[in-house]
């Protein structure tokens, strides 16, 4: 059952990629770009991509509710629900950087965990997927799926760590600023001093690249979660042999949560090993304390 659903999820994200690609390559004009309540950007392409994915998923599985980042929600309460981010990384997309992704996740409302995730890159048609308990996989075009494992090295000055920051970002439709600009500054300073800091602007890409086992890519921290889809790649990382920790945050106080339940938290830390994840968590905690002081 889940495998069948994932095949449809792959079809949906690839259809969204086909919508996005002409705009990403500059052959079609983006038109107006607006700013949402959470300070992130929105284009007409976001909505076009979501509509295409929604039709494919709802036609195949009408009993599974669909929850899209751009407001495309349908279906009554059920055991499973689809989460859909039709264009993760709109800011880099707008300036022509080919690092944006499309994210589709399947969430289990009874177990309260991610059941499956598919992340695709419009620019290169690369697709990463994982089903809980069945490993992490990669494919491109017609090449068969290949199992992926995380890079086996140690965290250090020469290893890459991804971070996602949006200045002034606020969750819950612009109500809660989880991570202050000062805290972000302290954390980036710490990471830049101890690792090779990478900022691609797409949580989907960050998490997929760690799961993919890219050379000297060790982990990442997500602090700007527009919705649970922004942490869905945690399943990719964990199924590739990596580790993750998650936290809700209230007035600079962190409370640990289950990383496979993105509905329950605000910040995700992930790495190629438990040790990497713990070290990145320490950097996060130090940044919060120093910024408060």
UniProtKB/TrEMBL annotation:
Binding site for Mg(2+): 69, 85, 87-88, 230
One Pfam family, short name: Inositol_P
GO biological process: inositol metabolic process; signal transduction
Keywords, in A-Z order: Magnesium, Metal-binding
An MF annotation (GO) of this entry: inositol monophosphate 1-phosphatase activity
UniProt cross-references to PANTHER family, sorted A to Z: INOSITOL MONOPHOSPHATASE (PTHR20854), INOSITOL-1-MONOPHOSPHATASE-RELATED (PTHR20854:SF4)
Protein name: Inositol monophosphatase
UniProt source species: Candidatus Falkowbacteria bacterium RIFOXYA2_FULL_47_19
